[in-house]
Structures are given as C-alpha cells and as structure tokens.
C-alpha cells in the first residue's frame, strides 16, 4: 500500500493528511496513492511458503492414528512409557489443530482496530503450541514417570508395546518426511540436521518449524519408550518403564522451550532476511528517482506480509511533484522484486553524510546492501582505544640549519 505523502520543499515531509476536499494548500503539492495490497506468494529465502499446510495436515493425520494405537497398547500392557507417548500424540494432534486455527484467523480482513491485519495470529498460536507441548506433554510425562519409579507396576504383553512402537515410528517417519520436503527451501550446505536447524532459525512461518520439532521429539521419544519397555522386559525391573516416561518428559520440555524461543522472536517482530533486504535496497536504487537509501527498516506483520519503511535521498533540485512520482515508481519496483512487501512507506530527504548515524541498525542495513557504495559491508565503528594502545607519532625532525 503506497504511503500518503506530502512534500514541503526539498527533503521535508509532512504527515499523511491532506487538506479538506483533497485540494492542496497554497505552496504545497500533495499526492495520495491508494492501492489495494496484493496477496501474493512469499518468496523469501529461509521462510516457509504458504504450502506448509501439507506438513500440518500430514502431521495431524499421523498423530491421530498414532494416539489411538498407543492408547490401545497402554490399555493392554499398562506401560507408563506407552501412556506418556499416547498423551504426547494427543498433545501433538491438538497442536496441529491450533496451527490450522491460527492460519484461518490470520486471513481475516483488516479492521479499523487492526489496520495491519491479523497475520501475527499465526505467531501467537505457534507460541500456544509451545505452551501446550510443555504443560500437557512434558509435565504429564514427567509426573507419570516419577510415579512409576516410586510405585512400579508390572507391564503385561510387552510384545504388543513393541509392535505398536514400530507402527508409530513408521507413521511419525511419514510425517517427518513431509515436513523435511516442505523445509527444503532453506537450502545451503551442510548435513540434513544442519539444514533443519538453519531453517528453524530463519523461517518466518511457524507451522513447518513446529511440525519439524514435534516430529523430531516424537521419533526420539519413541526410542526412549522402546528402551524403557525392553529394559523392563529384560531386567524384570519395572522402574525402567518409569525412566523411559521421565526421559520423554524431559525431551518434550527441551523442545517446547526451543519452539517458544523461536516463536517469541517472531511475536516480538523480526525483520526480513538479508537476501530480501538486499533486494529491497537494490530495487529502490535501481532508478534515477532515488540517489541512495539512507536507512531501511522492515518488519514481518505475518509470514506473507512485510512492512517496509525507508528514508531515501532525492535531489534537492526536484520539484514536489517529481519527488512524489519518483516515490510511486520506486514502490512499484520494490513490489516487483519482493511481492510480500504489501506495505511500503518511503520518506524523501536530502542526504547529508555528516548526519549519518552509523550506530543505527537501519542505516547499516541500507549501506550494507547498497549497490552504489564501493563496499556492501557497513563501515565498522571506530573502537575506543585502550590505555597503552594509542599510537603516538614521533616528534617532527628539526629543520636543517641554513647554509
């Protein structure tokens, strides 16, 4: 959406109001652009596409089947590890339902009270998923494990438990494989584990990272449950079953904390990735209307909605009408390069190098990605000299005596 902009002389911008009736005041030239935001597919490297729905639905179907199978096995065997895994699968199913609810609520149109839309609902429900995973899955498993260690109960039909765990591993592997396929956009070098970690850290959509973490925890948890059942069967010590449940609870707690930390960062507000910011700066400076980008700020209002705010340098000899037309042209270039940039606000100014604040991250971002600067790396701030490290030049030599 183009920002309403009124220009008063070179480099001075008023607010976003126009005089009543839409006519310019004497001495002012105003222009207002009213474009409807276009809903387009996100193309940000390291961020999930809207196609993450497939991973969520696959995980939901797998977890519902797994939960039913595990509960049946618990009723037959009485294993605490099987009960912990059953509750884990129920919690995962609820989490996938929450992620789907968040996607649905995020698609509501903007209102006067929420003028930037509801895209952040997806981040909120992603955080709720972490809370549910910790409270329902981890807390219950730890409690059940401690209870079985203090008051052991005999496992009956351990073979049934082992068969069910094998079936659950196959279903969880199917869900995990789907999530891996959805996350391949992260790319880059390294092992599968390194690429998954990189994807979770950089993704701007919460659904696929949540499914990846849940499925990873589920597969490791199945291993704990398997060890608990086998050790109980071999040693005839029923406390091993409780140890398996305890291990599952600690595992779920750790994964819940990781998911909460990553989702909290999205809730607070993350900027666009470096590649996207580079594309924005390049698009802004790819024309005679903009001399350079002075500073750039970006914010993800949702996985597929990006807010762009930048101060751009224009020629002091341009008229207000020429500046406004140039802003409109620059905005079109940005939208062509970064389709998810639905909200763009550009402020024209006359650049003065002496006023550049190199401690401002927005200024450093603009300098780092500018194709018009000799180096795309923001200049380092001069370090404060430590005692003894100050360079002292030798005193100048005396002039030679006159001949």
Note the gap between the termini: 78 Å
Mean pLDDT: 78
Shape: elongated
CATH architecture call of the largest domain = Up-down Bundle
Broad structural category: mainly alpha
Summarize the biggest pleated sheet: 3 strands, mixed
Q: Radius of gyration from the CA trace? A: 29 Å
- Widest beta sheet: strand line-up: 3-4-5
Give the topology string: H per helix, E per strand.
Answer: EEHHHHHHHHEEHEH
So, the CATH homologous superfamily of the largest domain? Cation efflux protein transmembrane domain
Supply the number of structural domains. Answer: 2
CATH topology of the largest domain: Alpha-lytic protease prodomain-like
Number of helices: 10
Total number of β-strand segments? Answer: 5
Q: Return the CATH class of the largest domain.
A: Mainly Alpha
- In the predicted model, the low-confidence regions spanning at least 5 consecutive residues are 1-43, 45-50, 375-394
Helix content estimate: 40-55%
Strand content: 5-15%
State the main characteristics.
2 domains; single chain; 403 residues; Alpha-Beta Plaits; Alpha-lytic protease prodomain-like; 5 strands
Summarize the structure.
With 403 residues, this protein is mainly alpha-helical. 54% of the residues lie in helices and 8% in strands.
Architecture blueprint of SSEs:
Layout: E1 5-7, E2 29-31, H1 53-77, H2 80-106, H3 121-150, H4 158-182, H5 192-202, H6 207-235, H7 239-268, H8 274-285, E3 292-302, E4 305-313, H9 320-337, E5 343-349, H10 361-369
Parallel strand pairs: 4-5
Antiparallel strand pairs: 1-2, 3-4
């Amino acid at each position: 959406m183009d920002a309403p902009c009124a220009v008063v002389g070179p480099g001075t911008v008023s607010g976003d109001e126009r005089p009543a009736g839409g006519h310019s005041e004497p001495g002012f030239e105003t222009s207002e652009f009213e474009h409807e935001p276009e809903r387009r597919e996100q193309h940000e490297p390291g961020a999930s596409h809207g196609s993450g729905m497939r991973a969520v639905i696959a995980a939901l179907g797998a977890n519902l089947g797994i939960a039913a199978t595990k509960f049946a096995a618990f009723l037959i065997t009485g294993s605490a590890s099987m009960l912990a895994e059953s509750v884990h699968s129920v919690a995962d199913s609820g989490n996938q339902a929450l992620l789907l609810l968040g996607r649905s609520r995020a698609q509501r149109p903007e209102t006067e009270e929420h003028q930037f839309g509801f895209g952040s609902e997806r981040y909120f429900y992603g955080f709720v998923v972490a809370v549910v995973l910790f409270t329902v899955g981890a807390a219950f498993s730890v409690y059940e494990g401690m209870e079985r260690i203090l008051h052991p109960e005999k496992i009956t039909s351990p073979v049934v438990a082992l068969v069910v765990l094998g079936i659950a591993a196959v279903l969880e592997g199917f869900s995990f494989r789907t999530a891996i396929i959805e996350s391949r956009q992260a790319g880059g070098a390294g092992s599968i584990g390194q690429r998954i970690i990189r994807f979770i850290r950089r993704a701007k959509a919460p659904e696929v990272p949540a499914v990846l973490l849940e499925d990873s925890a589920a597969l490791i948890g199945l291993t704990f449950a398997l060890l608990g059942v086998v050790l109980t069967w071999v040693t005839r010590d029923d406390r091993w079953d409780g140890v398996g449940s305890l291990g599952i609870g600690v595992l779920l707690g750790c994964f819940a904390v990781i998911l909460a930390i990553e989702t909290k960062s999205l809730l607070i507000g993350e900027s666009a990735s470096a590649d996207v910011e580079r594309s924005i700066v390049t698009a802004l400076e790819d024309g005679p209307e903009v001399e350079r980008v002075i500073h750039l700020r970006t914010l993800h209002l949702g996985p597929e909605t990006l807010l762009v705010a930048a101060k751009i340098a224009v020629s002091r000899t341009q008229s207000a009408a020429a500046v406004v037309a140039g802003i409109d042209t620059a905005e079109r270039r940005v939208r062509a390069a970064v389709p998810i940039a639905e909200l763009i606000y550009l402020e024209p100014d006359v650049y003065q190098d002496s006023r550049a604040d190199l401690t401002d991250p927005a200024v450093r971002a603009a300098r780092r990605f500018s194709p018009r600067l000799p180096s795309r790396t923001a200049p380092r701030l001069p370090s404060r000299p430590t005692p003894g490290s100050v360079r002292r030049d030798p005193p100048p030599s005396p002039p030679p005596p006159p001949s």
